[in-house]
Please model this.
Amino acid sequence: MLKVNNRKVIHTLSKRLLKENKSRNKVALLAIILTSFMLSALILFGMNAYRFNEVNWIQSAGTAADAYLTNPTELQLSTLDKSSSVERIGQITQVASSEMDDDRIELSYLSKEAFQMKQDALYPIKGEYPKKQNEIMLSVEAVNHLTGSTPKKGLKIELPISDEHGNQVMQEFILTGWFTDPLASNNPLTSIGFVSKAYLESTNHTIENNGYADVQFKRGITGVDEVERLEQQIKTLDSQAFATYFNLSGSSDQMLMLVGVGVVVLLIMFSGYLLIYNIFYLSISHDIRSYGLLKTIGTTAKQLQQIIRGQALSLSVIGIPIGSAIAIALAFGFALYGGLPNFFRYWQVQLVLIILSSFFAFMTVLISVWKPARKVGKISPVEATRYTDIKIQSKKTKLTTHGGKIGKMAWRNIFRHGKRTTVVFMSLFFGLTTFLSVFTVVESLDIENYVSRTMVSDIEMRNSYMIGDDGEFEPVYNLSSKLINEVKAVPGVTAVMPQYESKYKAEFSDEFSSYYNWAKDSISKADLAKRFEGEMISLESEDFECLFSIQTSEINSNIDLPKSNTVYLSQSLEGTYELPSHFDITHPISGKEYKVNFGGYLPISLRSSGINHWAPTLIVPEKFMNTFNGKVQPVIGSVYVSVEKGKDKEVHQQIQQISEKYGDFQIETKEALRDNLQLSKIAISLIGGGFSVLLALIGIVNFINIMFTGIINRKQELSVLESIGMTRKQVNKMVAIEGAYYAMISLGLVWTLGNGIAYGLFTLFNSVSKYAVYQFPVTPMVLVSLVVVIICVTVPLLTYKKMTKQSITERLQENMY
Model:
């Protein structure tokens, strides 16, 4: 048997059939564009959200490295470099410091690998790394503060540098590059700068005496466990620290985010599948006689399937790029809108993400047309000529003398085609439930609740930070009683509450297992035992009482704050970890030991100034703070300022003016936090709401398509009903009731089962956020329900009206020959 190459003929047939089905093509193209758009947008937003989270971690550590080793020897570096678990090692050597009053810039030399690992933390970086001895790279904030101008290549900057004798010597540098230092946003000169290798060689500084190595492990390796293993190999000294920054590769939040994106991708693919499948299924049902005739002249089942897939492929080539392009345009639109400026700061439209989303969209189309194409291939020419797409039910017909009731007829019509009905209900249910779930979460984002849990007062003042001799950030305690008295005198200020802080030491033991389980992703048990130091914080007794009076409903009746030797944790940590019922703490200066009891959690958000402590921050009564410190005066770490309603801006401006006389501070306000959160909520509402509306739209479009095609396919049946005496008014009533039933059943499922799913998702979300307050989205749900009812009722009526432009005779004769 000779093989005949009919590819060209099949391709021509596919194109001709595609041109004939213009109305089908429009709906199918819309479905493919919607599916492609949602998949592209979700993958772009999801993967960039993953990157945003990753960059936040990197910024908190200042590098993409997983661990650091202080003062490494050449042998230790060589051993680490040969380890199969190590991806790369960066060397950082501190070569000089520039001090001006209480401000400080730490100058370091970075190896190529170290600089690469810092790039995300200092994004965006402009210019190039210094090469000559007199070249320097500084933060934008430092350049602005030092010169009063914007950074530019070749700008000359003078800095006082401490020589080997401790004397300040002015040195002139030429700026070759600049970066954004996130840690310098509130204190411009608490910053870092980079110099060349030539500058390092002009000093007597070495990495073994004045530096550290950043170590990045290969993907999938747990940093804490690997540090413990390598520590034995490189034989660290007691004076060295080998510890992790964080364990990003094993972060449960990161994995949860990827799983979430994957689940939503599958949901979108399923919704798109339901729509595209239905479109092609109904189109094939309508054109089945044409395919039957093709089979009679010798077209094989495989060739018929190729014709169907060819049409889907042609529509995909047009629809998928359009959907991806709209998603990219929308993303950049949000970036310009600025609702989430920090998020879009690191936005990347990577080609691999577009290819990935296009692949998922293409697979959705192929899977959707597989079953309809298979159906065409299996049907015989004889079956095709008398195909009606309606299964004859074996149920016994009930005879009556008063005719059939229109409502019952409509009800039977809905469930006559089980598969089609199931697809409609599933499509509407999934789309509307997603809409309900997203708006439930968005409506439940209680900004005031978050602000009140995050900030104690209207304005909060905190000490700024500087880089110490060991390269670590340390608080600069500029807050003083004199400053507090000036703030109290500002018109509009109703209360000023200083927060006192003191360091403590504790003996780490297995009793702290709850705390270790929380911290183990960031530090090994051995390192935690070595560095188990923390801070205790306290307010004056009347200030505690003032805060408790605001939170009376949340106060645990067992809490007895004046009780001596009792320590507490902030309520935000409840469920995260707990402390032993009894343990010992030691004063770091006097060495005196105290036995304390754990009293539970206080419903106030107090934070310490310390950022390099590994023991928990303890909240203690004023009396115990004084007893613990004895003659040593505790420092003021924060000041909480309450303001008269409506005077926040005026008071904030005056406090800023006063604070300039005392040094640099971090000043936060509830108003600024509230405004930022409101912008973010709007952006989240637009993004999440947009996705949910589109998913709901897929369900609605699916319904429109099925109802439109269903009534067209029932043209003869409805014409017969008219010919035996059923009026057009009665037919209109019947198809309208059919649509109403679809709406009632779908909305009934959404308002009951869907609402249960939405509440479950809210509970899951709130277990992470802990500040959301459940709020049912009444207005959005009522509006979308009205839209669904209107569409479900009007679409059948409009379709029937269009069909009845022909006479009954013409409709009855249409498919007789």
